[in-house]
Amino acid sequence: MTARIAFVASDAPSAQTARGALVTRYGTVPEEEADVIVALGGDGFMLQTLHGSQHLPAPVYGMNRGTVGFLMNEYSETDLLDRLAAAEEAVINPLKMKAQTVDGKMHDALAINEVSLLRAGPQAAKLKITIDGHLRLEELVCDGALVATPAGSTAYNYSAHGPILPIGSDVLALTAVAAFRPRRWRGALLPKSAHVRFDVINPDRRPVMADADSIWVENVLWVEIQSEPSIEHRLLFDPGHGLEERLLREQFV
Question: Would you say 169 is a known binding-site residue?
């Protein structure tokens, strides 16, 4: 039986053109009726699609019409049905962020790649780090810090010199961004079950913002982060080009 495909695309002209060609060739259905969702764009659009379809049973197969395309497969129009039939599935869980701002408001968000805290003023941020209720770092003076999933470990985390994590590992990366004190402290590896809390020291003079997959919260007072196992994102990849292989390959370039 032919799979019912929902084609979605970013606003980029190349993605819109690709969607038109694929819809003409294969037809399309609404996402709610699809057996598989095909996302056309870059990694940013893939994250947007995963967030938007997390309540649906259909897995997401991405084809790159952007730049890096780490979460995407190569684009081709002619052999899509065969590729979908042979695709390998990777299941990832997002991070859940809860944050309170200095005005007392609460904010919740989900992040597939990472939750990051960044200084929002001219002075370095000062953060206190607590893991599972135990104070682990009294004061981190830095430009920021982040918690990354294995799927997101090659993104901002890797640029900040954090470790690349195997996709099947039950581990999160806690990585500092330009740490000043403790000097050269770059973070820690945490179990996936860890509950991470950042408290902002002197938030009036040293404001900090939090970001969960491009959902920004300004002037945070504290941020709590933990994995959300009740939500599963299903991604499809061509055989031999899945997340596990890509994460391994990134460590040898």
Answer: no
> Residues 11, 35, 43, 79: which is the catalytic one?
43
79-92 tens-digit pLDDT = 999 999 999 998 99
Mean pLDDT of the 18-26 span? 96
Name the residue type at position 181.
R
State the Cα–Cα distance between residues 75 and 121, nearest whole angstrom.
41
57 and 179 housed in the same domain:
no
Q: What is the mean pLDDT of residues 207-223?
A: 96
| Overall domain count for the chain | 2
Helix, strand or coil, per DSSP, at residue 180: coil
Do 112 and 170 share a domain, yes or no? yes
Beta-bridged to residue 131, according to DSSP, are 134, 196
Q: Within this chain, do residues 42 and 154 fall inside the same structural domain, yes or no?
A: no
For 243, other C-beta atoms within 10 Å of its C-beta total 21
Domain that holds residue 53: 5-92+232-250
Check the annotation: does 143 bind a ligand.
Answer: yes
- Contact status, residue 139 vs residue 181, Cβ threshold 8 Å: yes
Active site residue 108: no
Structure tokens, 174: 């806690």
CA proximity to 7, closest of 51, 46, 32, 37: 37
User: Based on the domain organization, do 143 and 196 belong to the same domain?
Assistant: yes
The answer on 55 and 104 residing in a single domain is no
**Does 178 belong to an annotated binding site?**
yes
182: preceding bond cis by omega (within 30 degrees): yes
